[in-house]
Amino acid sequence: MISVSRFIHKNQAFLVFRQLQRTLSSQTDGETRIAHILKEKFPSATSLKVVDISGGCGAMYEVHIESNEFKGKRTVQQHQLVNQALKEEIQGMHGLRIFTEVPRD
User: Where does it mainly reside (predicted)?
Assistant: First the structure.
């Protein structure tokens, strides 16, 4: 029988390996699809980053987007715009973290 501490250590090593693998590889299909949708919806975005934070299975994503389209809008309104843009995609997700910003002049 494997000890709990050995099990945890073994799984931590695997997670570090998977993170390194993700860093060295290209985006997942889901990341690419979501980024494409957001680029179309927010063409003036100056920065966009989409990360599958579910380990690659597509259940949860983190989105960082900087766009002039958010100027003058409260954070909740900015997030509503992102949610609306990803309405179809969100149906198949367990969660979505959204970080929005307005570019500095």
Answer: mitochondrion
